[in-house]
Design goal:
Blueprint lengths: L29 H10 L4 E4 L6 E4 L5 E2 L1 H15 L4 E4 L5 H9 L3 E4 L4 H11 L3 E3 L5 E3 L5 E2 L3 H13 L3 H11 L6 E3 L4 H12 L5 E3 L4 E4 L3 E7 L6 E7 L3 H15 L1
Parallel strand pairs: 4-5, 4-6
Antiparallel strand pairs: 1-2, 2-3, 6-7, 7-8, 9-13, 10-11, 11-12, 12-13
Length: 258
């Protein structure tokens, strides 16, 4: 393969001397980001402990939110096979929906979590399914998720069109900026959900409860859901080309929740 690999933290150690092996935690991204910059690499790749999630860094060492990787992979598969079904989760959706529509695919929403995504993919014979948590599922991999396949496809896309990863995602990030997933500990989850729904639902264009609470407005939307595996609630916000609004809604919702 035409790659030169520069490996970091590749020696297994059950004492976890480099902290929790989870690139979703911001401070855990620094080793990969720094390694990309120091080695002048074209791409940075990081995995979680069991290797079922794959995370990306561009040539500038910038972490690329998995939301935009879902869009890239959706486009890749629809270019190969138009009219295919793509599964996506409800946390962040606008970028994914626009790309699927543009490339003549069919977008099918599903509750997040591998058990739900895998079953929905089988039910709908979907070619690909993506979660913003960096789980990616493939029809040709028995509808299962893989941490290896995504980076091979991203490398193929970069190699075939000669574009850097930053160039592939820049427009999409500008069109649909996001807050990233915000994890919050609260004492009474039910109270928070009831309060948020009551306060925001009257102005919402749509309300979706397929996975937590999703409210959509003209130029912004958010999803609030309880974690399936941790005592947390998770918040995701996105806007249409409006960073100022994103920051405003972030502060507003945070104040309402905690």
């Amino acid at each position: 393969m035409p790659f030169e690999f520069i490996k970091i933290n590749h020696n297994p150690d059950g004492n976890f001397p480099n902290d929790v092996p989870n690139p979703m935690i911001e401070k855990n991204r620094l080793p990969t980001s720094n390694a990309v910059l120091q080695s002048k690499a074209d791409l940075g790749i990081a995995w979680d402990a069991d290797h079922d999630r794959c995370f990306f860094f561009d040539e500038n060492g910038k972490f690329i939110d998995s939301y935009y990787i879902v869009g890239l992979l959706s486009e890749f598969f629809l270019n190969k096979k138009p009219d295919s079904n793509i599964i996506y989760d409800p946390r962040l959706i606008w970028n994914t929906l626009e790309i699927i529509k543009k490339n003549k695919g069919k977008a099918i929403q599903c509750k997040s979590g591998h058990a739900f995504i895998k079953q929905k993919m089988r039910d709908c014979d979907a070619i690909y399914g993506g979660e913003i948590s960096a789980h990616h599922y493939f029809k040709d991999f028995y509808y299962c998720d893989s941490g290896m396949i995504p980076w091979l496809i991203i490398a193929q896309i970069m190699s075939s069109n000669g574009k850097k990863l930053s160039e592939l995602v820049k427009e999409r990030i500008n069109l649909y900026p996001t807050s990233g997933e915000i994890n919050l500990k609260v004492e009474d989850t039910s109270r928070v959900f009831n309060f948020i729904e009551k306060k925001y639902s009257s102005d919402a264009l749509s309300i979706n409860k397929i996975d937590g609470l999703s409210l959509e407005f003209k130029d912004w939307r958010f999803n609030l859901r309880s974690s399936n595996t941790e005592p947390l609630i998770r918040l995701n916000i996105e806007t249409k080309k409006n960073l100022d609004m994103l920051h405003q809604k972030y502060k507003q919702l945070l104040n309402d929740i905690i």
